[in-house]
Design brief:
about 450 residues, globular, YJL171C/Tos1_C, glucan endo-1,3-beta-D-glucosidase activity, about 35% strand, mainly beta, glucan endo-1,3-beta-D-glucosidase, about 5% helix
């Protein structure tokens, strides 16, 4: 078991897929992990925010919205999304009490390494960029081309809010060929994924230094503000895409079904909020969780008329917790059959149009998605993580980064995990845990979750 780390502010490819990685159904998979740490998350930029949805013309209007700061734009309100097959046993959101904080991690700088570097260990630092496939003449081809003979990795230098680097310095190739095939970035809301390149380091000591864990500077607890167990919710609102079908939300020929309250089965619509029951959601079906606080006035920005509009989960310091099972489901022919996922979206996206015309949400201009656990091909047992936003690519959705290390899909039994956002050092941790999700979390408990990063590095 090892730690997977992804640096977003200086995204540098340090190797091709090694012999320790496998290429399956269009995606690379490397090592099983129990912790992933994203560092240098957040930048200054802008995205196109929806300002109106005209039912008569079927046109959505947009205006530029600027953001900056640690974890931006993922420090904005987020909604939590689930795709079957999945059974959710627990979900919660914690916020720090007054006086609780996480200190900055001691993270060593990651020096770029040539893709020709000696590859004598398994991936330690996973610096992900685009994979470029070339033929025998060095000309780029698609990954499916019959005459593909090799690949190399394109290096992208991501510009953080603290830097002032010219556009000419933002893209540097590690091979002679200057053209490339961009990573096919896909949203869980867009139902596609990328085959990203993977990097590796020749020393494990640097990875251990880079994975020094965060720890809280106060003994104050983190308070659980939202919580769900089957049949019971506190400050959670379950929704799906059944608007206009059964008592909530709307439907139109322009924009289709809006979001709606979800019934206890998670699949059908409802006229009012209901708690998800003790159910397994089958392939192709999705539901989402917002907070229990309704939008009022313009405090959520623009959203589609007639929908049940609720706030997401905002802030730079927060912890999401999950317990879930992702059983196999090959019984139907639904889209995304047997490809479960859990992901976070900027909450503005589902409140306008999660699926459909790209001008009707801010997704395509980089307002933010964080794939926490996603199966990329039918029946896979490897859960991949990826951040999609505009970091490093001038405000488009093709920035961000991810890792080809993976969590093991829990097809029987459950997986418990915490997702920790730490604004003080611009990190986001995804960590398997075993503790109870009590009404409050002590600083020691959170410290122990963050310390898993260091433990994983020591074992690698």
């Amino acid at each position: 078991m090892k730690l997977a780390t992804v640096s977003l502010a200086a995204l540098t490819a340090v190797g091709l897929a090694s012999a320790d990685c496998s290429y399956v159904a269009g995606n690379y998979y490397c090592s099983n992990t129990n912790a992933i740490v994203y560092s240098n998350v957040g930048y200054s930029g802008s995205y196109k925010d929806v300002t109106s949805m005209d039912e008569s013309s079927c046109i959505c209007n947009q205006a530029s919205t600027s953001f900056s700061g640690s974890l931006a734009p993922l420090n904005e309100e987020l909604s939590v999304h689930f795709r079957g097959p999945i059974k959710l046993s627990q979900f919660g959101v914690y916020y720090p009490n007054a006086g609780t904080s996480l200190k900055k991690r001691d993270v060593a700088d990651c020096a770029p390494v040539s893709h020709r570097h000696k590859r004598d260990v398994v991936v330690e630092w996973v610096e992900v960029t685009s994979t470029v496939f070339v033929d025998s003449n060095g000309n780029p081809v698609t990954s499916a081309a019959a005459d593909m003979t090799s690949s190399y990795t394109k290096v992208n230098t991501i510009i953080s809010s603290a830097q002032n680097t010219s556009p000419a310095q933002q893209n540097v190739d590690t091979a002679a060929t200057s053209s490339s095939i961009s990573t096919a970035v896909g949203s869980s809301s867009q139902s596609s994924t990328s085959s990203s390149a993977v990097g590796q380091s020749s020393t494990s000591s640097s990875a251990a230094a880079q994975s020094s864990s965060s720890s809280s500077t106060s003994s104050s607890a983190w308070t659980r503000r939202s919580y769900f167990t089957p049949g019971s919710t506190t400050n959670c609102t379950f929704m799906n895409h059944q608007g206009g079908v059964k008592g909530s939300g709307v439907w139109s020929s322009c924009f289709g079904n809006s979001i709606s309250y979800a019934a206890a089965d998670g699949i059908t619509g409802a006229s009012s909020a209901e708690a998800l029951g003790d159910v397994t959601i089958l392939s192709g079906n999705e539901f989402m969780i917002f907070s229990g606080e309704e939008c009022s006035g313009n405090d959520c920005g623009y959203y589609r008329d007639g929908i049940p509009a609720y706030h997401g989960f905002g802030g730079g310091d927060k912890i999401f917790v999950f317990e879930f099972t992702m059983p196999s489901d090959t019984s139907g022919s639904a889209s995304n059959q047997d490809m479960p996922a859990i992901w976070l979206l900027n909450a503005k996206i589902p409140r306008t149009l999660q699926y459909g015309d790209s001008s009707c949400s801010c997704w395509s201009t980089g307002c933010g998605e964080f794939d926490l656990f996603e199966i990329l091909s039918v029946g896979s047992d490897k859960l991949i993580s990826h951040i999609h936003d505009g970091q490093g690519n001038d405000g488009t959705s093709t920035g961000g980064g991810g890792t080809q290390d993976y969590f093991t899909r829990p097809t029987s039994g459950t997986l418990k995990a915490a997702v920790i956002f730490n604004s003080s050092d611009q990190t986001a941790h995804i960590v398997e845990v075993s503790d109870d999700f009590a009404e409050s979390l002590s600083a020691d408990t959170v410290d122990s979750w963050l310390a898993k990063a260091g433990s994983a590095a020591a074992l690698s």
